[in-house]
Amino acid sequence: MSIFGTGKPTPGGAPQAGPQDAAAPRPTQSPLAGIEPATPAGGADSLIIDGTVETFEEVVLKASLSVPVIVDFWAPWCGPCKQLTPTLEKVVTAAGGKVRLVKIDIDKNQMLASQLRVQSVPTVYAFFQAKPVDGFMGAVPESEIQALIDRVVAMAANGGGAPGGEAAPDIEALVAAANDAFNGGDVATAAQAFAQIAQADPNHMGALAGLARCYAAMGEATQATALLDSVPDDKKNDPAITAVKAAISLAAGADAAGDPAVHQAELAKNPDDHAARMGLGDALIARGDMAGAIDALLGVMEREPDWDDGAARKKLLTVFEALGPGDPLAKKGRRRMSSLLFS
Question: E strands within the chain?
Answer without folding.
Answer: 48-50, 69-74, 100-105, 123-128, 131-137
